[in-house]
Amino acid sequence: MISNQILQNTINGLKNITKCDLSVIEREGKIIVSTEEDMIGKYADSIESFISSPAEGQSLQGYNYFKVFDNNVAEYVVAAKGEDVESYRVGQIAAFNIQNLLVAYKERYDKDNFIKNLLLDNLLLVDIYGRAKKLHIENSVPRIVYLIETDIDKEMNVVEIVRNIFPTRSKDFVTAVDEKSIILVKELKDKENKEEIEKTAKVISETLLSEVMIKCHIAIGTVVSDLKFVSASYKEAKMALEVGKIFESDKTIVNYDKLGIGRLIYQLPLSLCKMFVDEVLHGITMDQFDEETLTTVNKFFENNLNVSETSRQIYIHRNTLVYRLDKLQKMTGLDLRNFDDAIIFKITLMVSKYMAYKENNMY
């Protein structure tokens, strides 16, 4: 349950203080971590008989051995090198520390399982409140879900890195539902506004980039005030992640509240989308528009249909831009200088992008 890295850091710290070599041994007798590097991976011969004995400590062959229990069952054995009083005391301290780690990690494991089942809607309403009370998790406080997606192998413990960003926030929960997705369920303070919510996402993104050189996409759900609605915030974050990939692929942070019309298009059936595009373009496909025209149109939309500003930004004469818009009007019957026509073509572009994304990710 406790990672070997945590165990190794624990005994390394104790050795730095006491100068006594320490090892942690599994029930089967394998030494999993040690301050004596050549001992890692070896087997301690006498551990099996010690595990089955009623004794909690034992001195044998130059080491003091101590059991670490989980529910009255020996989970680990700590070995302190030496058979004197000092090594005995150090071994007891090490076993006590690891015992406390085991309890803390088990409690966190229970909370992680609860949060996972909560996010995935695997709990009945009565179970949510009952288990939350047992785990000392408050119910009626504002929370929000961040969904962090990374393209890395499963060996890198990104979950721990994200947890370490909020070391003092014991009421925040970081878990993973698959190899690439990490979820942060964050409790909000009364004064946290939308800017501060997005600032948290930026901190996560920048930390992952600076510490382990990985890029990520972060989607943010909406604020909920009750535990039973946390799964809704998670579903919103999932939708935001997908919609962001389609319509705002240049952004690494996407907020569900700011998805706009993309959120509506994402929920349309493909058959309806195809019908709409065919009716607007009269059989023309988006592939028939050259890159130059589409770039011009997108920049025209960015500048709120301002011809002069658009031509200045893409370094062309105003008449050249007008020529391109006239050319588009001949192809589609839509004059983008007219607000209603511009809206129709903008939606057509977005629907076409959505259709292409769905077709490419069908299998």
Characterize the structure shown.
This protein has 363 residues and is an alpha+beta fold. It is built from 13 helices and 10 strands. The protein has 3 domains: 99 residues, Beta-Lactamase (2-Layer Sandwich); 121 residues, Reverse transcriptase/Diguanylate cyclase domain (Alpha-Beta Plaits, 2-Layer Sandwich), CATH 3.30.70.270; 93 residues, Arc Repressor Mutant, subunit A (Orthogonal Bundle). The strands form 2 sheets. It has a 5-stranded antiparallel beta sheet with strand order 2-1-5-4-3. Strands 7-8-6-9-10 form a 5-stranded mixed beta sheet, sandwiched between helices. Helix 1 packs antiparallel against helix 3 and helix 10 packs across helix 11. It is elongated and about 95 Å long. The mean pLDDT is 88.
